[in-house]
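FAQ: What does the model actually see?

It sees only this:
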Amino acid sequence: MKIKNNLKEIREAQMLGKTELAKLAGVSPLTIDRIERGMPCRIKSQRQIVFD
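And it is asked to produce this:
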C-alpha cells in the first residue's frame, strides 16, 4: 500500500520554501527534496518534519 505524499502541497500552501521548511524541521533541504520526490529517507527525519 502506497501512502500519498502531500508534503509539497502542504509546504506550498504554507508559502514555505524547501530551505525554510528544512530549517524549521531541523533537517537538510536535500531531505525535504527527497521526501517530496518519494525517495526513501530516515524515519527520524520524517518524524521531525511532521511533529516539529
